[in-house]
Amino acid sequence: MEALTLRKIPPQVARSIRRRSAEKQISLNRAVLELLEEAVGGRRKRDTANGDLDELFGAWSKAEGAAVSRSLKSHRRVDPELWR
């Protein structure tokens, strides 16, 4: 994938990127990519074959993700009686 270097980023643009990064708990690089994709009206092609849930990736905060994991914990157990 190509890398670009940007110089002289206006302060208000830098603040918007940092705000997006903090709000979504994503890297600055990811925030820039998302903003660029939105600006040009396209979506970045994913490297994986199955991209059906890609729009959900990164949508939860770390606290929300932890809460969902805790609530699903009981569903991750295998009931041996069901597999006889």
**Would you list the SSEs in sequence order as H and E?**
HHH
Instruction: Please give the radius of gyration in angstroms.
Output: 19 Å
How large is the count of helical segments?
3
Question: Which class of secondary structure composition applies to the elements?
Answer: mainly alpha
- Average pLDDT across residues? 83
Bin the helical content.
40-55%
Shape: elongated
Total strands: 0
Low-confidence stretches: none
Which oligomeric state applies? single chain
In angstroms, what separates the terminal alpha carbons?
A: 49 Å
Largest sheet features: none
Percentage beta strand: under 5%
Task: Describe, in plain words, how this protein is organized in 3D.
- The protein is elongated, with a radius of gyration of 19 Å.
- It has 84 residues and is mainly alpha-helical.
- The mean pLDDT is 83.
- The chain has helices spanning 11-24, 28-40, 62-72.
- The protein starts with 10 loop residues before the first helix and ends in a 12-residue tail after the last helix.
- The chain has 3 helices and no strands.
